[in-house]
Every structure is written in structure tokens, then in C-alpha cells.
Amino acid sequence: MNKLNCMLLVLLTWLQYSLWLGKNGICDLINIHNTITSYKNINNIDELKARNDQLLYEIYDLLHGYEAIEERSRYDLGMIKLGETFYLITL
């Protein structure tokens, strides 16, 4: 009986060691989880996806709508239409 108890104790110790400290054990799982969380915080995936969606919308609007082109040329380049009078008011 004593030998059986020793064998079971050794087996239990070896299994616990493998579970906690062995390859692909709980310590590795915790490290991987922390790494994934830190990468998600660094990358801000949701913000990047929202920014990409906004850029895709702007590209589509520039390709298919003349209002967006006119708006860009007015505000970014300072262009005016023929027949319009431009007034610059400085305060």
C-alpha cells in the first residue's frame, strides 16, 4: 500500500508540475493572454477600423460625387466658381 501511495503522489506531483509550469501550461496561457491584451491596446483595432471606413467613404464620395470635389477645392485650395465674388474679412 505504501508503494502505491508513493507512486500516486509522484504522479500527482508530475501532473501538477506539467499543468502549471510545463510547456503550454497555465503560466504560458497567462503570458499569451497578457500579450494579446497589450497588442490590442497598442493597436486600437476599433479606432483603426473606423478610420479606414471613413477613408473608404471619402474615396467613394470623391470618385462618384462632384459635391465632395467642389468642397475640397473650395476649402483646401481656396478656389471659387466663375461669377462668384470672394470677400476676405480679417479681424
> What's the helix count?
4
CA(first)-CA(last) distance? 99 Å
Reported for the largest beta sheet, the result is: none
State Rg.
33 Å
Helix-strand topology string: HHHH
Mean pLDDT: 87
Helix fraction bin: over 70%
Please count the beta strands (DSSP E, at least 2 residues each).
0
Low-confidence stretches are none
Helix/sheet category: mainly alpha
Tell the overall outline: rod-shaped
* Strand composition percent: under 5%
Written overview of the protein:
With 91 residues, the protein is mostly helical. The protein contains four helices and no strands. The chain has helices at residues 2-21, 26-43, 45-64, 66-77. The chain is rod-shaped and about 105 Å long.
Describe this structure in a few short sentences:
The chain has about 90 residues and is mostly helical. Helices cover about 75% and strands about 0% of the residues. It has a domain at about 25-75.
Key phrases:
mainly alpha; rod-shaped
Write the layout of secondary structure elements.
Blueprint: H1 2-21, H2 26-43, H3 45-64, H4 66-77
